[in-house]
Amino acid sequence: MTPPRPEAPSRARVLDFAARTAELLERAARAAAAEAADTEAADTDRAADRTADRTADGTAERAAEASSAGSGDGARRLRDEAARAADGSATLVVVGEKKRGKSSTINSLVGVPDLLPVDADVATGVHIAVRYGEHPRAVAHLRSDGDAPEAPPRTEQIPLERIAEYAAVDPRTGRPRRLDVHHVEVELPVPLLAVGLELVDTPGVGGLVGGHAQLALAALENADALVFVVDGSSELTRSELDFLGRATERTAETVFVLTKTDSYDAWPTVVERNRELLARHAPRHAEAPWFPVSNRAHRDAVEAADSGELQEAAELLAESGFEPLEALLRRRIAARAAELRLANVVHVALAALAAPLAEQELRLRSLQQEPGLAAEVERAEEALRQLQPESAQWRRALTTGSRELKNTLQLGFRRSLNDVRQVAEAKIATSEPAALAEEFPAELEAQVEAVWLQLDNAARRGLAVLEQRVRDECATVLDAGRADGKGDGRADGSGPGTELALVEEGAVIRAERGTLLPEMVRSTHRDGGPLGMLENVIPTVGTAATFGTVIGLLTSSVLLPAVASYAMLAVLTRRRRQRAELGRVRGDATRHLNRVLTELTTEIPAQITDHVDGLADRLGLALDRAIADERLRLERRLAEHRRNLATSAAELAAARDRTKRRIGALTTLRDEGLALAHGLAATGRPDPDRS
Q1: 286: Cβ–Cβ under 8 A, 6 or more apart, which residues?
Q2: What crossing angle do the helices spanning 335-367 and 9-44 adopt, rounded to 10°?
Q3: Is pLDDT at 164 greater than 90 in this prediction?
Q4: Is the predicted pLDDT of residue 19 greater than 90, yes or no?
Q5: How confident is the model at residue 174 (pLDDT cuts 50, 70, 90)?
């Protein structure tokens, strides 16, 4: 194994810039608090003006505290964002039909042959996320108990060798071995993951159809790339092409991996045929790269390396085909995701710098005793007062937007349930009894899990749009008092309501009665004993006798009609039993489907309403606080400006020098951030500093 790549220079520059910006913001917060204390002390020496200025100066102190707290919040947010950029990973969702070598491919990529179960009778039943960690470990995330759905999800650390017990499907029943497991996270100290990649193995229940396809598509909403695994045995199937066509708008990057090159000599022909099929049926993926690999050769390479046979290990590794695949994942996918995360750090830093810079520039104008500044601030105060009544435009926008979001989520949920019903009814109508009984509950559960993910994704997007819409209604007024008119409306420069982090919450909507689906009730029918035999045989006796009579008339034989009648009786009885069994299983599946859909339609609409209303209330309260804080800031500015008018020339000169130095430090950091942002976003290409 090779050591992890050294950190790219741009990454180090961005994180260093973020650290220096956060430190400056924290110093600014401490300075604002100290200045408020100094102002209070100085005011006690102005006996003649104490009575007149007490109210204004008390307001100034409160506003200065709010301003210093805002700078501290901006620093904390910036440090959190930098930590995410340092620790975050590009998410690769690995998808494929059953037994195509999907789990073996992940094992090969991380260099741990026995990590995920690859036995012939084992299929993955839940998501498994494999990411970097300093020490190998696995954690199962468990759903809350059905009797206590309000309890938080639980986690349980498990040995790596027991992953199959928690994440695999029982081959006898087709259902997950552990119904309480939501997903499993694995951490490994391996180089490929250390460069910023996370591999997500998707459930393989029932193949790439029905619920599995819906679940994989929903997972792609938050993925950086799709790794699609096929093998060299045959060309892409209709279900695979349909899935790729539907995945077109879900992810910006697709990588194809063709496994079992050591078993199928004709794999080059299969690749060319697959390219042709993609060009016709999923053209968005036609130019995606293909990587033929052999998991067996990679496993042999690992074993040879462990045995000290380094030359043989190198030859087997080259034969396996994994080196070019790993190079692309490092160079293209991890690099692109890293650039996006770094660009977001710079964006947060620039937003956090905007408010204190505007504050200092406005203070300099006051220290320079600009005429008309007091009237300008008073106009801004009046504009803020217009935002406070219940009839304010932003409140109407919040009410209207939340109502529209609820309607949109309700409609999307109903459409999702219609899709679930359509797929499930097709499964019921076309499956054999044994397959239907074994596979239907698991596939329906996967479809419902996909509904959760789709609803969660839609809620996140809708809440982000609603928040931005309401903030836009307030932005002009909240920015009116800024020196440059470019603030985001909060003392920390982040915009009103940002602290809600609405779009970063976990799964937002769940049924009150828990996340586990009801078990499918299997009906029984007693067809044994004399009465059961008569029930099955009598309806077919007439047909069998008629058939024997016809045979007798045609052959003039005595024995042959009896044999023919018995044979026909056996065939008809068996067919009757098969039809009865098919009807029974289809009836069980239909009742189970209706029960699940009824449960969802009862619980979820009310949950959508409560959730959106609750978050809208939180957003409204946050905006109320932002408006009140801004009014305090402006009142402080007026009080300070009036004091400056009465301050000696020497004191004003000293204060101007301090303010100019602060502006210089803030401007230097802002210009550095703008240069970094320009370099990261100039062409969308990976950082040229990357190796």
Answers
A1: 275, 278, 279
A2: 30
A3: no
A4: yes
A5: low
The candidate with the shortest Cα–Cα distance to 94, out of 316, 291, 321, is 291
Phi-psi region of 345 (alpha: psi -120 to 50; beta: other; left: phi over 0): alpha
Rounded CA separation 596/417 (Å): 10
CB neighbours of 314 closer than 8 A, spacing ≥ 6? 301
Helix%, strand%, coil% for the chain, nearest 5: 65, 10, 25
142, containing H or E segment: strand 137-142
Q: Tens of pLDDT along 469-510?
A: 887 777 655 554 444 444 443 333 344 434 334 444 444 455
CA angle 357, 85, 128 (to 5 degrees): 150
pLDDT at 46: 47
The confidence band for 377, taking pLDDT boundaries of 50, 70 and 90, is: low
Q: Rounded to the nearest 10 degrees, how much is the dihedral formed by the CA atoms of 487, 488, 493, 496?
A: 150
**Residue of 1, 151, 146, 23 whose CA lies nearest to 79:** 23
Q: Provide the 8-state DSSP code for 169.
A: B
- Count CB atoms within 10 A of the CB of residue 684: 9
Give me the phi and psi of 187, to 5 degrees please: -120, 135
* pLDDT at res. 611: 82
CA–CA separation, 232 and 262 (whole Å): 9
Question: CB-based burial of residue 261 (10 Å sphere; 0-12 exposed, 13-18 middle, 19+ buried)?
Answer: buried
Whether the Cβ atoms of residue 219 and residue 251 lie closer than 8 Å to each other: no
Nearest to 302 by CA among 279, 287, 320: 320
